[in-house]
Amino acid sequence: MDFNGLFSNFGELTTTGLTQGAIYALVALGYTLVYGVLKLINFAHSEVFIAGAFAAIWTWGALGLNQDSVVNGVGSIIMYLGIAMVAAALASAVTASVIERVAYRPLRKRNAPPLAFLITAIGASIAISEAFGIYTRRLPEGVPNLVSIEPLFTIAGTPIRPIELLIVGSALVMMVLLDLFVNRTRFGRGIRAVAQDPNTAALMGVNKDRIILLVFIAGGAMAGVAGLLYDIRIGALTYSVGFLLGLKAFTAAVLGGIGNLRGALLGGLLLGLVENYASGLIGSQWKDFAAFAVLVVLLMFRPTGLLGESLGRARA
């Protein structure tokens, strides 16, 4: 174990972990929303993320940008990021709603067993992933240089870059907006009511199908924003990256307490930190192992995650 490597790069590992964890957390929100309402693990959500990531890149392409483009000026950067963020959120929301209408709603109408939902989710995930693979000829898509990676300032010797501030800040803003939506709006009350007792909510006049569709759309929009943030952080995108990232986002949701919105935030940030600290301590080849090992150990002692399930009763 290289403790010297961990401590000497602690600041850099922390900023990288928080940046990656913020992306995990945004994707994890989709898992936790759907599970909180339907008690369903939507394994097709990783491809909802990919839809948003590709939509952002193709939107930039339609605006005349390519992987060699360099955008200067704060106004231009904000414009390109804003347009792409809206496109990514819409693309992912539409993808999620189609999955709900085509794959899951017919199963609910037939009172299908949970295994049928699981198999359908896996099938939908593979089908969408392969569709993107065929369309892109399994080649990586480049991302224009929109946000500087040069240090903006330093904290205790650790360089802080604009791209890191943008990713973490955007993720936090989106999470706060979603939390306010669920807790302070009429639709949010409907979500919490269906999560707590769908039959009683229906008797009280809540349209369960509409609420479920809304949950998929909200989770999809979060995943779309995460896709855009992933693009600008990594600088390239391939059709298959959603699988591992989706697993880690699901791990983050379980880590924080699946069904708990604030738990998804905590789990995502914690997972990002753990895997980056592990890469500094025992090597980058153990990064993924450490992320899943921490989940197993935690669930042995706290099966409901750090904050527990909470979307229904006091549900975040």
From TrEMBL:
TM stretches of this protein: 22-41, 48-65, 77-103, 115-135, 163-182, 211-230, 236-256, 263-283, 289-308
Compartment annotation: Cell membrane
Signal peptide: none
InterPro entries, alphabetized: ABC_transp_permease, BCAA_transport_permease
Topology versus the membrane: Multi-pass membrane protein
Classification via CDD domains: TM_PBP1_LivH_like
Keyword set, alphabetical order: Amino-acid transport, Cell inner membrane, Cell membrane, Membrane, Transmembrane, Transmembrane helix, Transport
UniProt keyword Nuclease present: no
Family membership: Belongs to the binding-protein-dependent transport system permease family. LivHM subfamily.
Name used for this protein in its record: Branched-chain amino acid ABC transporter permease
Organism expressing this protein natively: Plantactinospora solaniradicis
